[in-house]
Amino acid sequence: MFGPRLDACASVDDFRALAARRLPRVLFDYVDGGSYAEETLRRNVSAFRDHDLTQRIMVDVSSVASGVELFGQSLQIPLICAPVGFAGMLARRGEVQAARAARAAGAPFCLSTVSICSIEEVASEAGEPPWFQLYMIRDRDWMAQLLARAGAAGCRVLVLTADLQTPAPRYRDIRSGMTRQLGFMENIKRSFEGLRKYGWTYDVIVRGRPHAFGNLAGVLPPAASFADAWEWIRNNFDPTVTWADLEFIRRHWRGAVVLKGVMCSDDARLARDHGLDGIVVSNHGGRQLDGGRASLSALPEIVAAVGDTIVVMMDGGVRSGIHVVKAVNMGARACLIGRPWAYALAAGGEAGVRQMLCAFAAEIRTVQALAGIPNFGAKAIQT
Ligand SMILES: Cc1cc2nc3c(=O)[nH]c(=O)nc-3n(C[C@H](O)[C@H](O)[C@H](O)COP(=O)(O)O)c2cc1C
Questions:
Q1: Which CATH number is correct for 6-370, 3.40.50.620, 2.40.37.10, 3.20.20.70, 3.40.250.10?
Q2: What digits encode the pLDDT tens for the residues 261-310?
Q3: Ligand 1: distance of its center to the CA of 81 in Å?
Q4: Which is catalytic among the residues 211, 274, 284, 323?
Q5: Which residues are within 8 A (CB) of 358 and not within 5 positions of it... i.e. 6 or more apart?
Q6: pTM above 0.70, yes or no
C-alpha cells in the first residue's frame, strides 16, 4: 500500500519498482528479462559501472549545452527512445504517450514494427512522426507497403534491426506463458492476476483498446494473443537476410537508414561500406545472443574502426544521464534506452516518461559541468 510514488521516483530503479507493482507479472517479466541466463543483460549494466569518468576542473561550464544533430534533426539531449515491442500494453495507447513525452524532451521516439499503436496513430497523436524500426519479414510485397506507410506518415529515419534472425528463448517468458499457449487453468490464473492489478486493468484493458498490433493489421488477426503473435514472428521474420537485402530497403526508403545490432568492427565497416547512414551498437538489450559482450565494451573498437564516417549510436544498460555521458565520451553520438522508458511508461504513463527523461537531461547537464564538457560538439575530454 505504501510503495513507491511516481513523484518520488528519482532513478530508473525507482521507476522499475513502481512498474513491478502496477503491471501483471507476465508483462513486467517480458520487459525486465533477457534471453537464457541473462548474462549479457547483466554485463550491459555492469560495463557502465566499470568505466570511470574523469573529474575536470577550471573549465568554464557557465553555459552547458547537451544537444546534438542527428540526420538533420536537432536533439536536446543525445538520447533516443529505443523501439520496444508491445509497449501499448504497458499503459493505455502506450506508444502515443511515450512519443509525446519524448517530443517534449527533444528526444526522438523510435516505434517498433510490433507496436500496439500504428505508425499513423503515433505520428498524428504525438504531433511528430517517430523514427520507424523495421524487422525484415519474408513477404517483401507486404514490407514494401509497410515502408510506404511509414514514409507517408512522415517518418524520416528507418532503423533496421538485424539481430533477431530467430527469437532467442527467454526463460521468464516461457515460465510466465508469454511465449507459449496457456492451458485452461493457467488462463484463469492470469485473468485473476490481471484483476488484482486493477489500475493497469482499468487503464489498458478497459480504456486502452484496441489491443491489436497496429502495424500488422491484415497479417495478424485482430484478436491475436501474445502466443499467436510470437508464433507469427517465428514464422515470418526472415532469417535469410544478408547485406544484399539493403538494396531492397534503399529502393523503398528515401530517408536515413540505421542498422541496429552491430557488435564488432567488421560488421561496422561493412555497414559503412554498404552506405548505411548510422549504426546502433546493440545486443538487443541482452534479449538475443546471450553470452556476448556488453554493448559498451564493443563501442571503442567500433568507433576506432569507422571513426566519423558513419553515425555510431549505442544501447544496452544505459540507466542514467551519467551513463549517457560515459558512452558519448567513448565516441557514441547518442544512446538509445529501452527498458528505462518502458518502466517509466508502466509506472506513470506520459507523465512518467517525461519525468524520467527530465531526470536524464538534468543529470547529463550536471555531469557535463563536473567533467568539464561544456558541449558534445567540441570533442569531450577523454577519460
Ligand atoms: C520489452 C522490450 C521489447 C523490445 N522490442 C524491440 C523491438 O520490437 N525492436 C527492436 O529493434 N528492439 C527491441 N528491443 C530492444 C531495444 O530496442 C533496445 O535495443 C534495448 O532495450 C536496449 O537495452 P536497455 O533495455 O538495457 O536500454 C526491445 C527491448 C525490450 C526491453
A1: 3.20.20.70
A2: 999 999 999 999 999 999 999 999 999 999 999 999 999 999 999 999 99
A3: 10
A4: 284
A5: 105
A6: yes
